[in-house]
Each structure stands twice: as structure tokens, then as C-alpha cells.
Amino acid sequence: MSETVFLGPDASNPCARARWDWLSPRLPPDLEQEAVRRIAWMALFTIVVGAAGFIVSELFPGLALGPRPIRFAVFLPFVLVSAALFVVARRRLLSPPRIVDLSFAYKILGAASIAVITNAQPWPEGPMLPGWPPVAVWVLMFPIIIPAPSVRTLFTSTLAILADPACLWVLVRSGFMEMPSREAMVRRFFPSVIALALSVFVSRVVFGLGRKLDAARELGSYRLVERLGGGGMGEVWRAKHRMLARPAAVKLIRPEAFQGEAASGGNAKARFEREAQATAALRSPHTIGIFDFGVARDGSFYYVMELLDGMDLDTLVKLDGPQPPARVVHLLRQACHSLHEAHRAFLVHRDIKPANLFLCRYGADLDFLKVLDFGLVAVRKKDAAPSTLTADNAITGTPAFMAPEVVVGDRPIDGRTDIYALGCVAYWLLTGALVFEAETAMKMVLLHATEAPVAPSKRAGRPIPPALDRLVLDCLEKDPAKRPQSARELSERLAALRLDAEWTEQHAAAWWESVAPQSLSGRAAKATLDALG
């Protein structure tokens, strides 16, 4: 499954070649969206400036922008066209590619309108001061606002620049003004020729940066679409497969993140690769699925996982409060299913916490739980202490869910360490509170190592079956020998509980319909990011 990928479109793929053909008007999707947003702001700016100029011309004839007939025939319609473009771009009434196409027509129309207004002003009789004609400034704006291939920029900018002398000729033929001298026209229009060359150069630079950005987002068969955030060792992105209509999440770590760990033998890289390999080897439906992993040409490690629609258990309790005991049992048994397989493969998760247990819609199933982030996984041999790839003498994990043996370091870490953390999760689900509250992480881990927890039934504010109350406390025993000895044993004890009510598919459907009726992919991505950080 591991592979080395090279960033950039496949040269053998005609679709990839066509995509970046210089004649192609298309931008990468995210840059296209950004261009549409800029088009809307540009149109709004034109509306404000144009309306202000029109009002000033009406109120103060000495400052008028050309003769009144020209203002009503040309200037006012251009302001109205700008308003229409603003509405279309702001409300996305057309697809982004079509809005970008419209903007180039708007570029030429705007140049013509500006040319009519400026050429209708009296030309100075003597030598003119050096400067940029308004049409030239208008043309120079566009490559920055709307990146485009050089050929398209050359074509549209040429038409826009030619609109200036063309409108002058129309005004002369219509009797609005006399033809200026040849020297005056050269001084007036020559800067526009320079602006044309600059616009093509700027377009090539800006559009080229977009190409490089898009190429850098190609990872194997996947294209990074949207950055969901960064945390811990790397970043998480929403991604799409080039050929399959399958959404995915990509976790990647950049080479610069390894610099601080050079002295420890590249532990961060080893940890990242181990996380992908360990998780990909697991087949429980309650373990996050890994589609692919590898190394990019720039040295970045990445792996591709399923993109889930739901929320983690931390968000669940914050959103909906403490959960019914029957639902807690239902969720814990699913976590046990994932951990049982991992423990049989001598993998210890070591960071079980609500943010790493993800509740989602999964196909037709509701309340389906996935265990995320085996990034701190400890690989151990049978009857041997687990090996770790963390910094020397470092305590790894989350303080609020850390087993005493991790804090003290006096016992080997095995599957019972995850059982303790799962007991902390059960406590959180039943009470909406942590097992221990403390001002600092150090105080919290010391409480886990030394203090006996208060029974969840005394903090829940609602009835908790005594057997479930006792089972949670068993999971929280300081001595691993007194806890359930395996995830399977814990699951069996949970299944044997006699509860006053059950959590059925009907209950789950009603909850999802009332609390989370729509897709939670954005929240899912946030929670996945937090979990994977």
C-alpha cells in the first residue's frame, strides 16, 4: 500500500494536459471560487465609484464626467451592468466558470465605457503630464483579480486597450469633439501598450502560481480540495479521488515538522508511518478506514482515510449533555469491538478519549462509532512490554484520560491501559464531567495516579444502574489486574447489564432527526482534525 508519489498532473493523461492548456479558461476550483468573490467586490466598488461620479456630475456641472447625454447613454448603463454582475457573483446565480467568463466580457465593456467618458473630457492643448490612462489602470487590475492563461489575457486586454482609440474615433465621428493631434494621441495611448504587456506578464505569474498550488495538492490518486485545519504533527484536508466519486480525508505531515526530532532518529516520521500501517491492518468496521498512504516528492508523509459524517463524543456531550445509560452501553461496545481486534494484534491505542471516538451516520446505520487516531499506538510482542517511538521519558496521551501506569511508569502498558481510558470516556458520557478536575495537566495526571474517583452515579444528576456504575469504577481501578482484562470481557459485561430501557434504532433515528438532521461533514472534519492532531 505504501508508495512514493510525485506531485503534479499526470503528463500521460490528456485531461490533465488539457486542464492547464494555455487556452483553457479554467482555474483550480478553489481559486475559481476566490476569483468569483473578488469579482463581486470589484463590481461593488465600481457601483459605488460610478454612482458617486454620476451624482457629483449632476450636482456640480463644473466637475461633470463628460457631456450629459454621454453620461446617461454610457456611464449609467455601465453602473447598472456592474450591479447585475455583483448580484450574479454574490448569489452564485451561475457556475463559477460562467461568472469568470462574464467578467472578461465585463472587462471589455468597462474599458469601452471608461474610454468614452475620459475621451469626452477636453484634451489639454499643450504637452500632457505623464501618467496612466484610466483604461490602462482598468486593464492592469484584472490579472490580479482574475488569474487567467496568458493567451486569454492577451486577447481580452488587447480588445480593452483598443477600445480607447476606437471610442475616441466614434466620438470624433459623432461630432462630440475634434480629432486630437497625432502627438497627443501617442502620449495618451502609448502607456496603454505598456499596460497590455504588463497585464500579460502579471497574468502569467499569478496564473502560474495557481498552477503550482494546484499541482502541490495532488497526492497520488487524490486531490486536496479544502484545508480543514492543522494541529499536532500535521494538517487534515478534504480530498477527492481523481476517478472515483469517493470523498476522503487526507492527513499529512510536512518535512519541516521533523526538524526538531532529528536527534531522536526521525521519530516523527516513524510514528506517522506506523500510525498508518497499524490502522490500515485493522479490519473492524469500528476502526477508521485507511485507503492509502505514502510519501510525496517533497518528503511529506500522508495517508488517506474515510471522511465521516457526524461528531465525536466530546462534541456529543457538549451538544446534547449526558447520555442515557443504554446509549452509553451501545457506544462503548462498539469501541470495544475495535479495541479487541487491536489488542489481539498487540496494538495499544494509548489515546482513547471522546475526541477520538467518532459517532456518525455510516451507510444506513445511525449511531455508528469509529475509533480514530492510532498515532500513539504502542506495538508490543506477546508477553513483552510495548515498544514506543516517542521521545525519551516522555508521557504521551491526554491527561484527563491517562491510566496510572502511564503516569507512574511502574507497570507495562497493555490493552488494560485502553480499558482505563474507556472507563474515563464512559464517565464523561454518563455525567458530562471528567473523572478528575484540575487546574493543570500535571495535577490531573497525579490525581489519576493517586486518588479514587467519585462514582458517576453521584455526579450524573440522573439515575445510573448500579451494575453500570460499578463497571465504570472497575475500569478506573488503579491496579490493571483489577480492571476488565480485555476489551472483549468489557463488552460481554456491558452486554450482560440489565437496563431499565434499551437504545434501539428507532431511538437513534429520532435523535439524529431532532439534534442533527442535516449533514455534519463540516463538524465531522473539525472533530476528525482534533482527533488526529
UniProtKB/TrEMBL annotation:
Superkingdom: Bacteria
Pfam families: Pkinase
Transmembrane segments: 39-57, 69-88, 100-120, 132-151, 189-207
PROSITE patterns cross-referenced by the UniProt entry: PROTEIN_KINASE_ATP (PS00107), PROTEIN_KINASE_DOM (PS50011), PROTEIN_KINASE_ST (PS00108)
Annotated protein name in UniProt: Protein kinase
Gene Ontology molecular-function annotations: ATP binding; protein serine/threonine kinase activity
InterPro entries named among the record's database cross-references: Kinase-like_dom_sf (IPR011009), Prot_kinase_dom (IPR000719), Protein_kinase_ATP_BS (IPR017441), Ser/Thr_kinase_AS (IPR008271)
Sorted UniProt keywords: ATP-binding, Kinase, Membrane, Nucleotide-binding, Transferase, Transmembrane, Transmembrane helix
